[in-house]
Amino acid sequence: MNFDVLVRYGPRMLEGLVVTVELVAISVTLGALLAVPVALARLGRNPGLRGASFGFVYFFRGTPLLAQVFLIYYGSGQFRGFFEAAGLWWFFRDAFYCCLLTFTLNTAAYQAEILRGAIRSVPPGQWEAAASLGLRPWQTFVKVILPQALIVALRPLGNEVVLMIKGSAVAAIITVFDLMGVTRLAFARTFDFSVYLWAAAIYLILVEGLRRFWDQLERRLTRHLALGR
């Protein structure tokens, strides 16, 4: 472990860490918002919506994240004229925004499947009980079904966030200077392999901090279940 490399490139690596956290936090949040309608479409009775949501989930869960990043970043250049006419080229020419879009769609597919399974795990009697109290279907879903489903989905969602943190390293390949992007730059200038060890240590600290936070969150949100045992 070369401390000289850490002293020289440590500040840049911390700046890259901020970019990584921003990229993951924004994409996971937007993905969560998108996952709800996708999961509901997967559970719905409309064959068109069910088929479209299945195709979306199947594609983004069945193809590598790196291929998806390339498809959006490099593929959008093939439609530059269209995006310029639509006023969207400023978005698709920026590597950070392309990664953000790709990560959002990717995590939305995984979160939708997690949420779909969690919703199906809620006993059907909950719907019947809510109907007997005069609640409308949307009220039942928001106030009764969704809170129970989120408790079930909490641990898998935490795993998904961890996977997104580690998967975000692919952003460095298309010149996004996240933590891995800065690490690659430092290695290209120094040829000192220890810079990757420092980067791995930073990723490990980040993931461990998230794991501890998620454990505390799970304990807090499920403390009523422990009291009822």
Could you explain how this protein is built, in words?
By secondary structure, the chain is mainly alpha-helical. It has one domain (about 5-220): Orthogonal Bundle (MetI-like fold), CATH 1.10.3720.10. About 80% of the residues lie in helices and about 0% in strands. The protein contains 11 helices and no strands. α1 (about 5-45) packs antiparallel against α2 and α1 (about 5-45) packs across α6. The radius of gyration is 21 Å and the shape is flat. The relative contact order is 0.15.
What order do the helices and strands come in, and which of them pair?
Blueprint: H1 3-43, H2 47-62, H3 65-73, H4 80-86, H5 89-92, H6 95-121, H7 125-132, H8 137-167, H9 179-190, H10 194-221, H11 223-227
Helix pairs in contact: 1-2, 1-6, 1-9, 1-10, 2-6, 3-6, 6-8, 7-8, 8-10
In short:
The chain is an all-alpha fold and 229 residues long. It contains eleven helices and no strands. Helix 1 (3-43) crosses helix 10 and helix 7 runs antiparallel to helix 8.
